Amino acid sequence: MGALKSTPAPIEHHDLSEKTGFSLRQIRVLHKRFKQLSDGDDVLRREDFLGISSLKYNPIRKEIIEAFFNRRNFSPSCEGRANEIDFEEFLVVMSHFKPPCSKMTDEQRKNIRREKLKFIFNMHDSDGDGLITLEDYRHLVEELLSRSGALGKETSRAIADAAMFEVARTVGHRLLSNFDIESRMNIRFLKTDVIPGCRLG
Amino acid sequence: MFSRMAPRGRSGLGRSLAELGLLLLAILVLLDGTVLSLEAATSSEIDTHEGKPGTHKNTSKKSFPVLGIKYDDVSVPFEISLWVLLASLMKLGFHLIPRLSNVVPESCLLISVGLLVGGILKLARDEVPPVLSDRIFFLCLLPPIILDAGYFLPIRPFVENIGTILMFAVVGTLWNAFFVGGLIYAVCQIAQDKYSEIDLSNIGILPCLLFGSIISAVDPVAVLAVFEEIHINELLHILVFGESLLNDAVTVVLYHLFEEFMESGSVSAVDAILGLVSFLIVALGGVLVGAFYGILAAFTSRFTSHTRVIEPLFVFLYSYMAYLSAEVFHLSGIMSLIACGAVMRPYVEANISHKSHTTIKYFLKMWSSVSETLIFIFLGVATVEGEHHWNWVFLTSTVVLCLVARVIGVVGLTYIINKFRIVKLTTKDQFIIAYGGLRGAIAFSLGFILHSEHKKIFLTAIITVIFFTVFVQGMTIKPLVELLAVKKKHEAKRSINEEIHTRFLDHLLTGIEDICGHYGHHHWKNKLNRFNKKYVKKILIAGDRSKEPQLIAFYHKLEMKNAIQMVESGGGSKLNSTFPSTVSMQNIQPKIHSPPSARPSERALPQLTKGREEEIRQILRTNLQKTRQRLQSYNRHTLVVDPDEEGFDDLILKKRRMMELDWKVCKTSSHKSSNAIYSQAYVKPGAENVPTIKIDLASPQSPDSVRLLDEVVQDQGLTMSLPSSSSRAYKTSGKDDGRDQQKLLRCLSDPGPDVDDDEDYDDDEPVPT
Q1: Helix (H), strand (E) counts: chain A
Q2: Which residues contact B299 (CB under 8 A, 6 or more apart)?
Q3: Cα B587 from Cα B594, distance rounded (Å)
């Protein structure tokens, strides 16, 4: 697990807390996890993620891992992909999953919603050109159904096509306009605790 | 006799003359002195009335009786049918008067009718049959309503909010019971009403607590009846409704507990602990019994592929057995019924035919609707029937205490609950939850079977509270909801995109939780689903369907629905009617250029002449055969061969064809100018096997090609672009130049009205994937 310092939170943590909105305690816990995943290193690589055993049942694990290395998630102006990320970038990606606080103005709520949607958009858009094509969508549906095996490409194609058709049909074509993403895409970070038995691999 | 008809003032309606006639007939029969109680207890009356026709017979010579009256043999079914008929006619009548049913909720009207009928019966015969006996209520009237609620329970919101619901149901009800019981005892001791013949201070603490426990439970029937009409948002609905369902366990335990204590006379600490244990047993036992029967039902449905006709019967029978079995052991019947319905639903629906599904849905709706109507009418009748002991102090203090207890309970609990919730409950939410705590017939029935000496005063108080909540709260909740601008239920149909993203989010959040290393909510849900998929589904679902994932099942259901809708709305023959709902490229433009004010009708565009329309129809007809093979792969029937569903084969194909047609006949706007849309669609027969309709798309330089990333920045939705490279199914011409300039093909939407009266949520998993 590496040597964990039990000193008071370093100054970077305060900065990070301000930048990402996590509390100091949450940052400490996530830092522990970061260190655990990266084997004491200061950067995380793709192989580190592949070591998480429970992730292997996840049909979209590739996309999830890629999302961590997608520079567009770190800040709106960056492009391209990274091969390794440091703790700050790790936190920024995680901050997309923070639950919204109760007292928020409408403006803030809209911003948060857009952030989360942008994250998902980036996940769908695998080639990074800012557009999601039918192929991307088909790929997504195929992955979602990949665990079920028997049904093959035809049905997933049909579903993706139908979905695209639906988008094309809606007025002003707002996908997911009724989808409360700000209340659904959340993880309870406060309860996050690195479980000692949770080893990699 | 007819003079008594005058007070029945619904004669204003001309068209309900026939109904009025039926009503008169019904009343006539009732008043004819042949009214019998549903209980065998009052069978003594039968004899007196039998005498009448009997004596007539005896006076004449003993010839062959050509016509005679033999009422007593059919009396009970006849009586029951009359009541049910009356209830249904009432329901019919109320919906014919739209103004009334908008202002007053149905439950109030029904109670009033019950009062009226009770009054008439009382005037006529000086006594009223005790129709709302507990046996009839608990065995016949309540189960259909609860089964309907349980079978169509929206699982996802229910499970997501289960913590909150349990807190309200258990802790809230306990708080209410003790608060009301305790304070009413205090009031009784203090109050000295010299005008009343009842000595309130006689009422001991235990009867008061018993009374408190009866009156504190929120009633599912009343909540359903009122909340259904106000269309409140899903969260609040499931909170109040879930609470009303789950507090049954608490009520049952408290009731039996206090009754036992009253018998035995003394209470000890051990008894209190036993009470707690008993609560756990009642609640969990009920759920287990229900789950057991649910699994049995699911397993049975696996083998019903050859006897489709009795499939619905299994569902009903197993559920009823679950209820009865739970009642045998004094477990919570309501929880058992809910558990049974919720557990069996995903598996049964995967196994049964579409027709059976419809049957189950409509039978449940029908029975629950009739039951609800009957319950309210009987409440009215029973009010007139019972002896009442009016004690203003007791009554007013009960009502006030109930309200106060509810408010304090909700506010206090929300404060605690909000610490654990992601989506906090606002003050508005709290108000609605508190205000929605309606009492109903369950409280009345429990009061009815009391063996206390103070039964009458308790019953009067219970009735007062019920009337108050149903009338005052029921009537005012709708305007209050409007006033407070509480979020309403959005009526949108569940779209396939939402479904895809729901699944996607589930996997995403599970993945993130795994990366964080914390075994949260999603992690366990995922584990449960994997277990379900691996073992349970294989056992309980027949054949190939067991491997069908959630998304595909949803997709097929949607297809089916669309296909049926299309046929119902006239299908392909109404090409013109599809045009008004065309969504065009123009709609993307407005975000960039002009305000999106285009209404569907303005985009209407019958540019296709009659001749072209005919040609298109001809093409469709001739090509249906050729495309049959190609489309087979999309068809549900490759998964499961179901002889019953061959009819839908054609529908799906037809719809496929329409979809293909939609893709081909595209409307593109010519541009920035008005909302008018120009199209050029022409038929080009002969190209390849299938004559296709080619479209002259706008040139790449036109502003039709839209940068969709702009969309994302400006809206808050995800938008997608379509590639120009099409699949074999969509033969559009006019390829683009590279990814950058993608044209979005605006297509015809589904013809026909989007009438989706499907109230059920299509979550099929016990814990949704």
Answers
A1: 9, 2
A2: B539, B540
A3: 10
Q: Choose one of A76, A98, A120: the last residue of a domain.
A: A98
Instruction: Say yes or no: A133 and A161 in one domain.
Output: yes
Inter-chain residue contact A168 with B583, CB threshold 8 Å = yes
Structure tokens at B117: 């009928």
Number of domains observed in the structure of chain A: 2
Q: Using CA coordinates, name the residue in chain A closest to B635.
A: A155
Residue A193 lies in a domain: no
E strand or H helix that includes residue B694: strand B692-695
- pLDDT (tens place) for every residue of chain A, 201 residues total: 444 445 555 777 777 777 777 777 878 888 888 888 778 777 777 777 777 777 777 777 788 877 777 777 677 666 777 777 788 787 888 887 777 666 667 787 778 778 887 888 777 777 767 777 777 777 777 777 776 555 566 777 777 777 777 777 665 555 666 566 666 667 666 544 444 433 333
Between chain A and chain B, how many beta carbons pairs sit less than 8 Å apart? 215
Q: Is the pLDDT of residue B4 over 60?
A: no
Contact by Cβ (8 Å): B399, B464: yes
Cα(B252)–Cα(B248) distance, rounded to whole angstroms? 6
In this prediction the ipTM stands at 0.84
Q: Does B718 touch chain A (CB under 8 A)?
A: yes
Domain range for residue B311? 134-484
Output the DSSP codes for B399-462. HHHHHHHHHHHHHHHHHHHTTT-SS---HHHHHHHHHT----HHHHHHHHT---TTHHHHHHHH
Domain count along chain B = 2
Contact A169 B749 (CB under 8 A): yes
Q: Which residue among A55, A80, A98 closes a domain?
A: A98
* A59:B587 CB<8 A: no
Computed over every residue of chain B, the mean pLDDT equals 70
> In B129-231, which ranges are E strands?
none
Contacts of A170 in chain B (CB under 8 A): 583
Show the tokens assigned to B333: 């019947």
pTM over 0.80: no
| Closest residue on chain B to A193 (Cα) | B518
